[in-house]
Amino acid sequence: MVNRKRSLQKCLKHNLTNYIALSLLLLMPTTALANGNNNNSDDPPPQTRGTSGGSRGCETESEASSSSIPNIILLAPTQSYGQTLANSPTFAWFVKDTSSWQMEFRLYEYNQATKQSRLVKEIKDENFKSSPGIMILSLPSQELLVGRRYLWQVELVCDANRPSGNPFAIAAMKVVLTPPEVKNQLSQSNDVLKVANLYKKADLWYKTVEIALSSNNEPTLKELRKSILEQVATGTQTELREQTKAALTNSTIHQLQR
């Protein structure tokens, strides 16, 4: 099992070629994160893991033993394509480790027909480091293609000389257009909560998360933000749900800009 996981991660870091076949080597059930209105049931994504495996991560053994919460939790669906808009995609994830570690972010375009992927964005410089809590990455210069599918991955670099031990998580998303009726309603409202709820109703997961988390000082979004984080926690292992919910809802939110 260990060798299979190492082999999978090595492939994921390069180009995710033949992703579905490789991900099956994990022999683990897919965790259903953020189960909302699943209108993609006829178009299942490749098997993905919205949480990192194991509990050790980059922390010491004694630190890790105090909590079994995954080291990385992506704020994203895993059993369906989370829908996003083409312009300025925003990604969010939770990091448990209390120390700061170098991170690596990768975005792949996924071909549903060939089951292959190509790297379109990678961030892995010395200034790209983790902080404990929720991290938000906005890519204002990144234009996604409507109708295309993408995979995104976050990895913590515990030991650059031993990459097989790095915790990582991956999720899939699909780029869609804003429904005309929603677009019309959005043009008539400047209320941030109403706008967020319009995106939520349209099942635009990533846009809803972006507004709920990026407007951290907006009191009217408090309940929506709590609802989203509790929804993510619900998708974790049953025995960890309450612990994960507490960790997510009490997290500091860190904004990243690239």
From TrEMBL:
Q: Does the keyword Signal apply?
A: yes
Q: Which residues form the signal peptide?
A: 1-34
Positions of region (Disordered)? 36-65
Q: Which UniProt keywords apply?
A: Signal
Q: Which InterPro entries match?
A: DUF928
Q: Which Pfam families match?
A: DUF928
Protein name, as recorded: DUF928 domain-containing protein
Q: Which organism is it from?
A: Nostoc flagelliforme FACHB-838
